[in-house]
Design goal:
- The complex is a heterodimer of chains A (247) and B (462).
- Chain A is built from 13 helices and eight strands.
- Chain A has two domains: 2-113, 3-Layer(aba) Sandwich (Rossmann fold), CATH 3.40.50; 127-242, Rossmann fold.
- Chain A starts with a strand and ends in a 5-residue tail after the last helix.
- Chain A has helices at 9-14, 16-28, 44-48, 52-66, 77-86, 94-101, 106-113, 134-139, 155-160, 184-187, 189-205, 216-229, 238-242, and strands at residues 2-5, 32-34, 71-74, 103-105, 127-131, 167-168, 210-213, 234-237.
- Chain A is globular.
- In chain A, the strands form two sheets. A four-stranded parallel β-sheet of chain A has the order 2-1-3-4, with helices on both faces. A four-stranded parallel β-sheet of chain A has the order 6-5-7-8.
- Chain B has 462 residues and is an alpha/beta fold.
- Among the domains of chain B are: 41-287, 3-Layer(aba) Sandwich (Rossmann fold), CATH 3.40.50; 394-460, no CATH class.
- Chain B has helices spanning 6-15, 17-40, 44-60, 62-76, 86-99, 111-115, 118-124, 134-141, 158-168, 178-195, 221-227, 245-259, 289-293, 309-313, 315-318, 331-341, 358-362, 369-382, 388-401, 404-411, 420-426, 430-436, 447-460; strands at residues 79-83, 104-107, 128-131, 198-201, 205-207, 212-217, 231-237, 241-242, 267-271, 279-285.
- A six-stranded parallel β-sheet of chain B has the order 1-10-7-4-2-3, sandwiched between helices.
- In chain B, a hairpin with a 4-residue loop joins strand 5 (205-207) and strand 6.
- Chain B starts with 5 loop residues before the first helix and ends with a helix.
- Classes of the chains: A alpha/beta (247), B alpha/beta (462).
- Chains A and B meet through helix 1, helix 2, helix 3, helix 4 and helix 8 of A and helix 1, helix 2, helix 17, helix 18 and helix 19 of B.
């Protein structure tokens, strides 16, 4: 099995450590991982703005980069959600359909495909608040949402609970959107920032030392908010925790 | 026509600290009550599917059910009128009122009459219109439209209501006790019920099988409006039809649970036939609904039962207030309905969303609200209604991200590093990010640079 490693543009540019943790984590399970060097972005920023024509070439490039792999794995729920549900600006050839169907967010890949039972190297002696991005939660359905009357489940929680020493804070509104929303964060800045402030305060009140998430874009926004508010709360991607980061 | 600028309006709303905090807390409380009520019903998700299926069936056979409703309503002794649009609706209502010599109309809450701008139309023609729903009355006295479809004055604090009432119905401006304020409004309204020559309601449901109008309320004002005057008019959007009385239970079980987190409204009134010596008129209103029904991606919005659950759960709505949408319908449901009334005016509303999907998950009739918001963005872009600066930003982003070379030039740390990053991520309005948030620090290297050094080179070794 060869996995194509998809490192979204903003992770590549701002958070290389998250890409490294994702790669190392997959390698720990003996998976053959390759990173196509010509990758850029999934096309979501343009498509979410309604500009499908402007998204088409980027989507085409994405499919070209990842066509050869059995699985594509990326550490970002929102980008993976775009690929799986919304990569429609280009013709839906069998190749496009295959890439869309075999692209996974890291947590669901570990949970559903690799079926990881243990992370013996992982230990994180901190109280963390889990943040599920909305695309990860309601789009990829990685956990039960508070709105739906259904049995409880959570793939990220299943994985994190295998980490030694970790404790969980219980925010009042665990699955309310943090207000990032891609270009929403700049075009609707007043509401976006307000939502971000409310989100980080909620986690802080609940005693979270860290916010951990499979969505670095949400955390980029939340971190910006927490720093501006002067809240002593730190941010770490779930890949880093599962890969054995201690802090 | 000028676009409604939701971002600017929300900024004003957020600056009123007490208001935004109260508004968010109050509506979140309704959302939590809704969760608890829905958890009490093991069959909740099944009910949602059933309600959605009934609505979709009805909308797919709407003409037949409307005619069945009309036949049965006439059989019951009601007069049935049809109105193609808001102007026709207002004229029909005015004609009924003026031919009966009506000087005062008491009405209960109706989003449809707000949609049609009926009140100013009648008032300009000398008919006094009295809103009798407490929240709607507060808004009428303050000369503001409702900010929420179920709780019209939810954006106001009790001190705001005290100010409005003091200036209009003469209460003590220093007394903001809610019981005092509610009782004052009640006493003020009572004489109007006795004096009005006509009463009016909207409808929550219109049952084709029985020709009856079903109105769900908590204050009793609708029943007084219907049962005291000798003339009763019900204005009904054509999408309010349900086929059989047995279907009503599905919706009634969900409506108030979704709206307010209460098991049922205080009153569920079935208005079927005029009382002896009185008249009952029903106005069936299209006003864009038939056109919406023909829209492949958007007709599902007609399933809406106006419970407001999507507004209560919407994190954007809770922090921007209903008035910031500049339309009769606000919040998520407004975002997908408003552009059908005026695409350009409401072209920025579908961007007042993070696409988080909570609205879709709470919707009792399973409208795919956030997916429709996503679709509307495409329509707005295709019809050239995006602001030029955004359009250009997306064209540039599309070019850069489609080219590995241009992309690497933009994000590479070898060159100027961070200075390029926000431009590539955010383009214009860069400072919008930094106004209330810190910008991420520039890393020493991109992931790709690390990979080339730590993996590609290693792999290349024999």
């Amino acid at each position: 099995m060869t996995v194509g490693l998809f490192i979204p543009c903003y992770v590549d540019a701002f958070f290389p450590e998250v890409g490294i943790a994702t790669l190392e984590l997959l390698e720990r399970f003996g998976i053959d991982v390759a990173y196509p060097l010509d990758q850029t972005c999934c096309g979501q920023p343009m498509a979410n703005s309604g500009c499908h024509d402007d998204a088409a070439a980027t989507e085409r490039l994405f499919v070209k980069n990842f066509a050869e792999f059995d699985h594509v794995v990326g550490p970002s729920g929102s980008c993976v959600h775009h690929i799986r549900e919304h990569l429609t600006a280009i013709a839906q050839t069998p190749q496009v359909k295959k890439v869309r169907a075999t692209t996974y967010e890291l947590v669901e890949f570990l949970h559903d495909v690799v079926k990881v039972q243990d992370f013996p190297w992982a230990e994180f002696r901190h109280t963390v608040g889990l943040h599920n991005g909305c695309s990860t939660l309601r789009g990829l359905r990685e956990a039960k949402t508070s709105e739906i009357n259904e049995p409880d489940f959570s793939k990220p929680m299943d994985l994190l609970s295998k980490v030694k020493g970790i404790q969980f804070a219980k925010p009042e509104r665990p699955d309310e959107c943090c207000g990032f929303g891609g270009t929403f964060s700049v075009y609707e800045e007043p509401v976006s920032a307000r939502m971000g402030y409310d989100k980080v305060k909620d986690h802080h009140r609940a005693g979270a030392e860290y916010i951990v998430s499979a969505d670095m874009s949400c955390m980029m926004h939340q971190r910006g908010c927490a720093e501006r508010l002067g809240l002593p709360i730190k941010f770490i991607h779930i890949a880093q925790v599962l890969n054995g980061a201690r802090e | 026509m000028k676009r409604i600028d939701h971002a600017e309006a929300s900024s004003k709303f957020i600056r009123a600290k007490d208001h935004v905090e109260f508004h968010d807390r109050r509506l979140w409380d309704l959302r939590q009550k809704r969760d608890r009520e829905s958890e009490h019903l093991a069959e909740w998700e099944e009910l949602r599917s059933l309600a959605s299926a009934i609505k979709e069936h009805t909308l797919a056979n709407l003409a037949g059910y409307l005619e069945e409703f009309e036949r049965n309503a006439i059989k019951n002794g009601a007069h049935v009128h049809w109105a193609r649009d808001a102007a026709e609706h207002n004229q029909v209502v005015f004609d009924i009122l003026s031919s009966h010599g009506v000087g005062t109309l008491v009405k209960s809450k109706s989003m449809l009459t707000d949609e049609c701008d009926m009140r100013p139309f009648l008032e300009q023609r000398g008919i006094e219109v009295m809103e009798t729903d407490l929240g709607e009355r507060i808004q009428q006295l303050d000369d503001e439209p409702p900010s929420h479809i179920v709780v019209p004055a939810v954006h106001k604090l009790k001190t705001d209501v005290a100010r409005v009432f003091a200036g209009t119905i003469g209460t003590d401006p220093k007394n903001s006790d809610i019981h005092y304020l509610a009782e004052s409004q009640r006493q003020h309204t009572r004489p109007y019920f006795l004096r009005a020559e006509a009463g009016m309601t909207g409808a929550n449901f219109a049952v084709a099988e029985t020709g009856s109008v079903v109105v769900c309320t908590n204050e009793g004002n609708a029943d007084l409006s219907v049962n005291l005057p000798k003339l009763y008019i019900a204005s009904i959007g054509i999408e309010k039809i349900i086929p059989r009385i047995e279907h009503l239970g599905v919706f009634v079980r969900m409506l108030s649970r979704s709206a307010l987190g209460s098991p049922i409204t205080q009153l569920t009134s079935h208005f079927r036939a005029p009382r002896d010596g009185t008249e009952m008129h029903i106005v069936l209103v299209d006003n864009g609904r038939a056109e919406r029904l023909g829209m492949a991606d958007f007709w599902y919005s007609l399933k809406c039962i106006r419970c407001g659950a999507c507004m209560n759960t919407c994190p954007v709505y809770r922090r921007s207030g209903g008035l910031s949408y500049g339309a009769t319908y606000s919040g998520p449901i407004g975002v997908i309905i408003d552009p059908t009334f005026n695409l350009r005016k409401y072209s920025m509303l579908p961007f007042a969303s993070t696409l988080n999907g909570s609205c879709t998950s709470v919707c009792p009739v399973k409208i795919n609200i956030h997916e429709q918001i996503y679709k509307w963005r495409q329509v707005i872009s295709e019809r050239n209604q995006l602001p030029m600066v955004k359009k250009e930003a997306m064209q540039i982003a599309g070019k850069v991200l489609a080219s590995p070379k241009l992309y690497r030039a933009a994000v590479g740390t070898a060159g100027t590093g961070l200075e390029h990053l926000p431009r590539f991520m955010l383009y214009n309005r860069l400072n919008a990010w930094g106004r209330q948030r810190e910008v991420p620090e520039a890393p020493q290297f991109t992931f790709r640079e690390w990979y080339l050094k730590n993996r590609v080179k290693k792999r290349a070794k024999p």
